Hints:
This protein is mainly α.
Amino acid sequence: MKLWLKKLAQGTATLTVVAALAYPFFRSDVMSEAQQLAPWQVPTKLSALQGADQQKLLARLTYPDHMPALTAVPDFAAIKDNLERKKAFFAYLEPYIERENSRLQKLRQQVLELQAKQRLQQTWTLEEYAFIYSLFDEFKVDYPEADERGLQDLLTRVDVLPVSLVLNQAAKESGWGSSRFAAEGYNFFGQWCFKAGCGVVPSRRSAGKYHEVAMFEHIAESVNAYFYNLNTFYVYEDLRAIRADLRAKQLEVTGEQLVHGLIRYSERGQRYVLEIKDMIAANDKLLEQS
Length: 290
């Protein structure tokens, strides 16, 4: 992570710093906030802009919420009371989940505004085009054209994940935070990586397999990677389709609905989906209290 932060700092060092801009998402510390973006969130079209428009693009893409304090994984296994352990687990992860969702809500609202502008046949600025095409790259849209179809494809990916879904899946994958991969590498979601040395070789890896269990530098990085995975990877197209259908019908996007899109997250398939669904139902009241 330190490497990509350094690269981003180098890439943005030549930008003109503007004292104030009449822009809804601008903050004076936008440059430092931009350094909190993951590599895939860094705007690819920044070099197409100059001066204030570069600042505007960065401000569009940054997180609206500040990074929560980065702390070590608590010793959840040491909490003997089951209810208290669950509360502590949810309290630890929830701020980072809310932060990811707040950025997705911010991005989505801007895409919807530009879609409305386009439908009224109003011309976009160069900076607005740069914003959309940067999102096409970030969210790996297969049809990267700034027309109605392209924006609709983008909107299926630029959307929130229910907190109940994320928390309960994290609990399932990490044994309520007690797994070695969670404690040592902030991997709460059982995420894999595929380059030698990118993580830890699982002890039960089958012959001919090359994956490793990913290791992260802190919890925010782990949650960010999970969101990126579900919003971009092709195996979760069903999840995104369920969410888009709920949006089209103006219904609430819930964990109980989206969990059906996780059938390919685990080799257990439908059994895994039912396990997560049961956990969401069992912990619903606890989440309401948090």
